[in-house]
């Protein structure tokens, strides 16, 4: 997979992608992540990429020209399955979406800022808009990092145990069950006996029941869906 991220603050993404699973995935050549400084594509001598909105109002708007130039430059090199804009009013990012997008080959993620981007970019260049929650961030970089991390860990060969990703929360529309490790007795706090029984069927039934009960209590919105 190749992920191209367009941003005016690439340094915000350097560290998140240089650690843990995402770092190992890049070292294994399972994913290629490229950060593109949007200011490199402006014709303004001061490297300006924003301007006042027509009709007035508070806040600046990201200009159409540098964004179009950057996207068109990338598209000359390869075809893209999706050109994504991180936006509060986009489709809510969830595990099924991550599963589906992890099968793509090439994607672009555009990080918004200020009051947003010129609407013509959304109308004529963007193929998918994604929100990571019902709140507003200072910019799209954190959302891009979340999306990238969620996709990369699903790529074959990234995790040491392929089954691990399949047992994560939300993969079966339930949150994950509780997990335990040694010691089995810590200050009188015991590990549930069923997990020590060796009976795989009973253990799986226990895990499912725990996941269902936790989801009902902690994420009733998922149960309703």
Can you give a write-up of this model?
This protein is α/β, with parallel strands linked by helices and 225 residues long. The chain has two domains: 2-152, 3-Layer(aba) Sandwich (Alpha/beta knot), CATH 3.40.1280; 169-224, Trp Operon Repressor, Chain A (Orthogonal Bundle), CATH 1.10.1270. Helix content is 35%, strand content 19%. It is built from nine helices and nine strands. The protein has helices at residues 11-14, 20-27, 64-75, 95-101, 119-124, 141-152, 162-166, 200-218, 220-224, and strands at 2-7, 32-37, 50-52, 60-62, 82-92, 106-111, 128-131, 185-186, 189-190. The strands form three sheets. It has a five-stranded parallel beta sheet, sandwiched between helices. Strands 3-4 form a two-stranded antiparallel ribbon. A two-stranded antiparallel ribbon has the order 8-9. The two termini are 31 Å apart. The model has no long low-confidence stretch (mean pLDDT 93).
């Amino acid at each position: 997979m190749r992920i191209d991220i367009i941003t005016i603050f690439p340094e915000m993404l350097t560290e998140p992608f240089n650690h843990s699973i995402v770092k190992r995935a890049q070292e294994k050549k399972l994913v290629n992540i490229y950060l593109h400084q949007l200011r490199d594509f402006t014709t303004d001598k001061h490297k300006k990429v924003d301007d006042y909105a027509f009709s007035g109002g508070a806040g600046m708007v990201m200009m159409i020209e540098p964004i179009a130039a950057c996207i068109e430059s990338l598209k000359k090199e390869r075809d893209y399955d999706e050109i994504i804009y991180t936006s509060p009013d986009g489709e809510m990012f969830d595990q099924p979406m991550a599963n589906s997008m992890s099968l793509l080959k090439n994607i672009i993620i555009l990080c918004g800022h200020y009051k947003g981007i010129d609407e013509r970019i959304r109308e004529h260049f963007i193929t998918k808009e994604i929100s990571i929650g019902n709140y507003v961030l200072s910019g799209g970089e954190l959302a891009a990092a979340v999306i990238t991390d969620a996709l990369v860990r699903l790529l074959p060969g990234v995790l040491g145990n392929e089954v691990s990703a399949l047992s994560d929360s939300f993969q079966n529309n339930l949150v994950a069950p509780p997990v335990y490790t040694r010691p089995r007795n810590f200050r009188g706090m015991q590990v549930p006996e069923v997990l020590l029984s060796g009976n795989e069927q009973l253990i799986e039934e226990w895990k499912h029941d725990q996941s269902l009960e936790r989801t009902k209590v902690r994420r009733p919105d998922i149960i309703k869906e």
